[in-house]
Amino acid sequence: MTSSFPPLQFDLDGLAAFIDGSFPARARPALGQLVALAPGHARLRLDPDEDMVRPGGIVSGPVLMGLVDVAAWAAVLAHAGPVAMAVTHSLNMAFLRACAVAPVIADARLLKLGRRLATIDVRLWQDSEDRLVAQSTVGYALP
After folding, report:
1. 73, 78, 109, 110 - which has most CB atoms within 10 Å?
2. What is the pLDDT of residues 107-124, one digit of tens each?
């Protein structure tokens, strides 16, 4: 299957370094780490710590939304190149089940990448891709 997206502008290490350099160092642990990259797809992993837990002993919604946003941004940047000012214009999130304090995987897949707008589907899961924690549709505006 061929990709309908432009070629990747980064390899995994290059994109990870760009993301790391775009955020303050102390914020990075809460935003996940890039672990895989392919045309139309970026995968991040978050290892939550006690600062990310809400009452009830689960990972908080704002932490999960941050992970989703960075995963979507990574999928866009992978094809658009080093465009730090690509910005979120919409983020719709459905929380499907409680997120345990355990590794969380974010799979971001480009649905559409235009000259000015991108739409990304991001799915969060733990243990199995079949048991989603959350699903999000993210829109990005490109400069």
Report:
1. 78
2. 999 999 999 999 999 999
